[in-house]
Design goal:
Elements: E1 4-7, E2 11-12, E3 40-41, E4 45-47, H1 64-75, E5 82-84, E6 89-90, E7 93-94, E8 99-106, E9 111-112, E10 116-117, E11 122-129, E12 134-135, E13 139-140, E14 145-146, E15 149-151, E16 156-157, E17 161-162, E18 167-168, E19 172-173, E20 178-179, E21 183-184, E22 189-190, E23 194-195, E24 200-201, E25 205-206, E26 211-212, E27 215-216, E28 221-222, E29 225-226, E30 231-232, E31 236-237, E32 242-243, E33 247-248, E34 253-254, E35 258-259, E36 264-265, E37 269-270, E38 275-276, E39 280-281, E40 286-287, E41 291-292, E42 297-298, E43 302-303, E44 308-309, E45 313-314, E46 319-320, E47 324-325, E48 330-331, E49 335-336
Parallel strand pairs: 5-8, 6-9, 7-10, 8-11, 9-12, 10-13, 11-14, 11-15, 12-16, 13-17, 14-18, 15-19, 16-20, 17-21, 18-22, 19-23, 20-24, 21-25, 23-27, 25-29, 26-30, 27-31, 28-32, 29-33, 30-34, 31-35, 32-36, 33-37, 34-38, 35-39, 36-40, 37-41, 38-42, 39-43, 40-44, 41-45, 42-46, 43-47, 44-48, 45-49
Antiparallel strand pairs: 1-4, 2-3
This protein binds zinc ion.
Residues 8, 10, 42, 44, 52-53, 55-56 line the site of zinc ion.
Length: 340
């Protein structure tokens, strides 16, 4: 099977979702600049008798381990390479422990039927993308270090996702990512801006002691979520965000603005001992249960205008240097303001 049999017949056409594992109406994340004549054609050679290269052949029609080995070999090239594996298909994709140098590693719309592992992997890359990729099993990036701009927009993970202690040295885009069985970024570090806008997290989301700069979580749907002890070096935005379960920002520190406009909290919201350097804005936020702001410190204005709290509000020992705005604030339960 070593005879050259021509070029892989895989063609990705953004207007044909079937070619990249999408459904009608889904967004294709492959950039126009990567296309030639409106499509992307796989440039790989195939062995005789095959139409598709090992990366594009369906998992049950190939030696999956050999396909991953082929990819690992390609990844061991020098740092000038631009790797593109749009629509590649894998059983398990284990790239753990690798030291990868490349201009680009782009696995947009890749489909991993099993688990993806990048544990302990160093990616010295200009650009890393798994946008629109589908991982049916687990996705683990524990202790991974990524130097370049990272795009996980529209990526979907069916099993648990763990990024504990991972470091992202450049901006990260997780817009509209979907995590079906929880996600953990415990003690991870984002050195650049981080965007989770419109992401959906089923199960528990953990950002315990995570370090961020500017971070946007607008329109995210969370169930239980913790940001306990997280540090934000810039501004945070949680506009229209849905906190479906228990939510804690206890002991978190935000250097800049904290915005929670029109966000909705469906269980207890614990902001105990949070420190916000600039304004904290909660206008039109809704709290189905209690809001705890005990020992919180606000360096500027605390805006609770038109906030509705169905449970109790506790602001014991809360400190603020600016104004407290509570125009049309409604608290159905008790308000504890001892030592305010
Ligand atoms: Zn191919």
């Amino acid at each position: 099977m070593s005879d050259a049999g021509g070029t892989c017949e895989y063609v990705l056409d953004p207007t044909e979702p079937g070619t990249w594992g999408g459904a009608e109406g889904d967004r294709c994340f492959v950039d126009d600049r990567q296309l030639d004549g409106g499509v992307w054609r796989c440039p790989r050679e195939v062995t005789s008798g095959e139409r598709l290269c090992p990366l594009h052949r369906p998992v049950d029609r190939k030696d999956d381990r050999a396909a991953v080995d082929a990819l690992r070999r390609e990844l061991s090239g020098d740092g000038s390479t631009k790797h593109q594996w749009f629509g590649a298909r894998f059983g398990d994709l284990d790239l753990s422990g690798m030291a990868i140098q490349a201009r680009t590693v782009d696995l947009s719309h890749a489909r991993v039927r099993g688990d993806l592992s990048l544990d302990d992997t160093t990616l010295d890359v200009g650009y890393l993308s798994l946008s629109g990729a589908l991982v049916t099993g687990e996705s683990t990036w524990e202790d991974a270090i990524v130097s370049g701009y990272t795009v996980l927009a529209g990526t979907s993970v069916g099993g648990p996702a763990r990024f504990d202690r991972a470091t992202f040295e450049a901006p990260v885009d997780l817009t509209a990512a979907t995590f079906g069985d929880g996600v953990s970024f415990a003690e991870a570090r984002f050195d650049g801006e981080c965007t989770f806008n419109s992401a959906i997290v089923g199960g528990e989301a953990a950002f315990s002691r995570t370090t961020f700069q500017d971070a946007r979580f607008n329109g995210v749907k969370f169930e239980d979520v913790t940001f306990d002890g997280a540090t934000f070096g810039g501004d945070i935005e949680f506009e229209g965000t849905r906190f479906g379960g228990n939510t804690t920002f206890a002991d978190a520190t935000v250097s800049g603005l904290a915005t929670f406009t029109a966000s909705a909290f469906f269980s207890d919201a614990d902001f105990t001992s949070i420190t916000v350097g600039d304004d904290a804005r909660f206008p039109r936020a809704k709290f189905t249960r209690s809001l705890l702001l005990d020992d919180a410190r606000f360096g500027s204005t605390l805006n609770l205008n038109r906030v509705e709290i169905d449970g109790d509000l506790s602001v014991e020992r809360m400190q603020f240097d600016g104004e407290l705005q509570c125009f049309s604030t409604k608290v159905a339960g008790e308000t504890s303001i001892e030592s305010l």
